[in-house]
Amino acid sequence: MIEVIKRNKKAILFFIFCYIMIFIFNFLRPIDMDLMWNYGFSKNISDGLIMYKDFNMVITPLYPAITGLLMKVLSDNLIVFYLINALYALFTLIIVYKLDKRIIFPFFIYFIFDTAPSYNTLSVFYIFLLIYLEKHNKSDYLIGLIISLAFLTKSSIGIFLALPTLYYIKKPKKILKRILPVIITNLLVIAYFYLNNALFDYINFAFLGLLDFRNGNGNYNIITLLTILIIIYIIREYLKTKNFELLYILVFMIMAYPLFNPSHFLTAIIPLVYYLLKKYRKINNLIIKTAPIFICLPILALVINYITCNPKYDNNLFKYRYLQNEYMSDIEAIKNYFHDDYSNVYFILMNSYLYKLSLNIPINEFDLPLKGNLGYNGEEELIKKIKEIKDGSIIVINNAYYEKQKMVQKINQVKKYMIT
Q: Is the pTM of this model over 0.85?
């Protein structure tokens, strides 16, 4: 063991450096709603809640399940959440290193900026692991298992990552070996939700809700055009090279659809960055020479921002993190108005998770009111639940916040019902 460590000392030190940098970079970034939702899902699991039954989300269950169980063992503090997610990102770097160690540092320079704690970061790990397994002709059962894990992390990604398997359509036994782990793992998940009386909720929120998510959530812009051009480029590259990696890189571009925002796009092209770094070696040298600019300046800016931002919100969950002033003022206003009595108070806000976790209020099915995250005909169903709220209760909304957000998942029908 000691000999192995000595032989790989430089690589081990590099990955320790990467892990620390990923953690610091994400820790210093301001809190946003994507972070709070992903953290909140995992904390719900840590608190013993049943996914889809006790709280709503559109993703399949693996990411919050794994992260929540780790938080249950370690701590449900936000810092622990960062540490766990930095580990997911590190797994990706290790696989890329095994694929081509010559590009690992330039790849890390790009990758660090897109390692926000979320199921998307875990999805990136799966695609590189599949490329590695395919490249080294590993077990088809293992490849099938990874495809299934990808599906159980984000269903659309898992479905598309299964498509390159059709390349082996003339080898039915090979495809069958890959299908078998998918069937077994999903039957286990179905059995879990059935035994917890949450099977319908699982199907409704994780799958039927996607119909609402897709309908009306399209955000077509310059990123849409860039995505199409990249897809054309990848197809041309594959036709010229027949490089099997390109099939996985191509299907992973689904990550950009249908929102086509910078966050999803930058994640979608991570595998393409890997491919381009391998193809154009001169870019590697240029990035290595300018590395201090790429790493030091952004982190220095984040450090300055962190030091100068006050006040810090120092409860047990968000210890050592700062919250933006607008969030701080909202939290204080809610505390002062309700005097810590929230027994008949319902929050229907984009930022309910942030406020509820800050104020130690239990999460429920009202707390992620986004189009596509509410199951089939979700807005109509949410309005029905609002109608059932007993008289004398208070519903908290923030219309000003809702109006200024440039996002496409607005629940316009619910908003219209509540303000009329």
A: yes
